[in-house]
Amino acid sequence: MQNGPAVRRRKLGAELRALRTGAGLTSGEAARLVGWHQSKVSRIETGASGVKPADLRLLLDAYGVRDRHLRELLLILAGSEETSGRHRWWHAYRGVLPPTYRDFISLESQASAMRTLETTVVPGLLQTAEYARAVTRAAVKDLDEDRLDTLVEVRLARQDVLRSDPPLALSAVLDEAVLRREVGGPGVMARQRRRLMEAARLPQVRLQVLPFTAGAHIGLTGPFVIFSFPSTSDLDVVVLDQLTSSLYLERKEDLVAYSEAFSTLQFHALSPEDSLDYIAGIGDGV
């Protein structure tokens, strides 16, 4: 388990090594093409050191990488702030957001798909403003109103990934506790449940409820997120949220284990159609 930057360096290095090999180049040949020492290429490929955006572009040009989205994704992994459009909006909040949160948003903005199990709160991408405000106020101690407003603003801005072209494909399994816990009071929860029902009807969103009657299940160990990326599955990553940080799991065996766990949870959860009826029933006092 590592922090976001360390994971990104290794994933970037592994992808660059694959691209170099695919181009039929040795590390020494690649180094000569861009005017470096071979050891610099090796350090980048092992994740021992990062790579500047300008140097990354040199490597991608040398390897013949023309895919725009793949180039932007690799630049994000390199920590670049120079990518276009919605991918860089969070940099305006650098003085407010902790690095781990910025790391999470950068992955979320570049992912093509996101699978998430939530056991305590509504996923951030589906929260209403008033629900987000109540959750943030409870989670962050001694928060003044200006900072609270900013954090809620960020939470809502993240939701643009569901409206982008193409949109993020979101699959969410919610424990029933998420729907019944009165965050912000009954009125806030009623409006939040309606928001969930609206989102569940979007073609890019698959929402399932895991009812209490499902009993003990593999998700009892806690919530998690799996990000998947276009062009290559080697960049996929599991994120576990902690109270003060996030942990990133990158090993293939971890990805397989969490992917299988999510499939199991989907199997035991209600279907998307039955989940809509279940949420409506909770709103009716069932």
UniProtKB/TrEMBL annotation:
- Which Pfam families does this one have? DUF5753, HTH_31
Question: Do you know which CDD domains this protein is assigned to?
Answer: HTH_XRE
- Organism of origin is Streptomyces achromogenes
Record-linked InterPro entries: Cro/C1-type_HTH, DUF5753, Lambda_DNA-bd_dom_sf
The protein's name: Helix-turn-helix domain-containing protein
Q: Where is the HTH cro/C1-type domain?
A: 16-70
